[in-house]
Every structure is written in structure tokens, then in C-alpha cells.
Amino acid sequence: MSIRALINEDLIDLHLHGSNQLNVIEQMASMLERQGRIESKSIFTECVLEREAQVTTGFGNGIAIPHGKDETVKDTSISIGKLSNSVDWKAMDDRDVSFVIMLAIPESEAGTTHLQILSQLSGKLMDEDFRDSLMKANEKEDVLNLLSDCITEKNIG
User: Which PANTHER family match (predicted)?
Assistant: First the structure.
């Protein structure tokens, strides 16, 4: 599975205006719904919020990786939101979040693809140079290129 199968420019918003965590998640779920990657924005949003209630996906350093695994997800997908104003995400480092990478995973791939993508992302996000490049990206193509280097076909599905 290539990165281009997971994400495209229409799943990236580098000027997302979110007032809080719920608003950001809803907007990003809307991107997925418009692309036909999820059947229901409301069900997917609820799924992501249930996951957040268990433990924060605020990774640290201003980044969150919320994810939802549900049967309403049609295709494994990634959506990206770079926030115009940071929001409280109850992150592990208590910093507000300004960059969100949302994963949408079909229930059937919950234990495989989900963990592979999450592992690759979180490992790469530990690298300060990668993190800075991602957060400073002003073009959608730059984000796609960075993710292509991070998430490789041979390590997914």
C-alpha cells in the first residue's frame, strides 16, 4: 500500500481553524467523509472521541495522532490538519497541539495496519528535524513527500 493510497492533497488542511479538540476532529472527519473514506462522520467522530477518553493521543511537541477503528471506515486513510491556533489536547507534555495526524482504520485492520502506521509515525516524530519539517511545511506536496519518507510500502499492509 503506497502513501498515496492513504492520503492525498484533499485530506490535508494546512490552515485548519479549530477552536477545540472536538471541532478539529469533526473537521478532519469531514475531509474523510467528503472523500468517501468513511460512511459516517458522526459515528467516526464518536469512535475517535471514545479513544481519546481512554488516553490522550496528544503525542507531545505540539502534535496529536488521533485515530478511529470502526466498521464505518471504508479505506485506511490519513488526514492532516495544521492548526491556525493551537488547541488543548490534554497532551502528554501538557503543550497545546498545532498539528494533527488522524488515522482512519477499518475494524478488520485494527491490529495490523493501524499499529504499523502508528509505529512508523511515532518513531519518525521522535526525530526533531522531521517534526520541524512537517510542522513548517506550507505546501501539501511537502507534507506528502515527508510522509512518503516516513511510511513505506514495505512496512504497511
Answer: PTS SYSTEM FRUCTOSE-LIKE EIIA COMPONENT, PTS SYSTEM FRUCTOSE-LIKE EIIA COMPONENT-RELATED
